[in-house]
Write a structure and sequence with these properties.
It is a single chain. The protein is of the alpha+beta class and 241 residues long. It contains 4 helices and 7 strands; from the N terminus they run αββββββαβαα. It has 2 domains: 65 residues; 121 residues, no CATH class. A 5-stranded mixed beta barrel has the order 1-3-4-7-5. Strand 3 and strand 4 form a beta hairpin. The longest helix is centred in the N-terminal third of the chain and has 39 residues.
């Protein structure tokens, strides 16, 4: 009976172990992210069923208000608006229009009125005026997950208005507006007038997306092992393997 014999070098074995371990670790990380997203989606579903509430004066833990339906009443600051850059909708790049609303208690809350596309050039900013009269707005609270990743500043402090910003830096925004700005955004409901394209996505990726990524990483780990075994059986590959 002919016996099969594996022929490989120590370097090849170490490389296989390294790659298989790396891909397996990435797969496990995606599974952890999947469980986190499932918990967030359950939280979103639970909070979406609560009636609209007023924002409390003191927000010690803004993340506990994430996804909550709220109602605010204030005056929009039309001359002090922000355009959050690099927002993509349906394959097009544009801005999220963030309008500060001055509340009676002195706070200023950012209201996301929706998405607008970039014009003919970056120098041509969209017209996003809104009447500066007191009004009530209903929407859902968005609180960013973690610290934003950036290679530079959020925006220039002396830039014209509406001011283009690269990410949400609530401390910088508070300085520019000279007001107390809670670290959250109220995403205006689609039924509210005075807004733009509003197809909010609570999460950038669903739990199912992370599961699909995990399967891909595990499949790569298995493929590395299979290729290693096949090459180890090959006499031609054994010359350099």
């Amino acid at each position: 009976m002919k016996l099969f014999r594996l022929e490989f070098s120590l370097l090849a074995l170490l490389l296989m172990i390294l790659l298989a371990s790396l891909f397996t670790g990435l797969g496990r990380w995606q599974l952890e992210r999947m469980h986190e997203k499932q918990a967030i989606e359950a939280e979103l579903l639970e909070r979406s069923q609560l009636p609209a509430a007023a924002l409390p004066r003191d927000l010690e833990r803004p993340e506990t208000w994430r996804f909550r339906a709220v109602s605010i009443e204030g005056t929009p600051l039309s001359q002090r608006q922000f355009l959050l850059d690099n927002e993509v909708r349906n394959g097009r790049v544009g801005y999220a229009v963030l309008t500060p609303f001055a509340l009676d208690d002195g706070r200023v809350v950012l209201v996301d009125r929706g998405w607008v596309p970039v014009g003919g050039s970056r120098s041509e900013l969209p017209q996003v005026e809104i009447p500066e009269r007191r009004r009530r707005v209903e929407g859902r609270v968005y609180v960013p997950f973690g610290e934003p990743y950036s290679l530079g500043e959020a925006g220039a402090g002396d830039a014209p208005w509406p001011r283009v910003i690269q990410y949400l830096d609530f401390n910088a925004i508070a300085v520019w507006l000279r007001a107390q700005v809670p670290p959250l955004v109220v995403r205006m409901d689609a039924e509210e007038d005075g807004g733009y394209l509003r197809n909010w996505s609570a999460l950038p990726f669903s739990a199912d997306r992370h599961l699909a990524y995990a399967v891909q990483w595990f499949a790569l780990a298995l493929a590395v092992v299979v290729v290693f075994v096949l090459l180890s059986f090959s006499k031609k590959a054994a010359r350099w393997w």
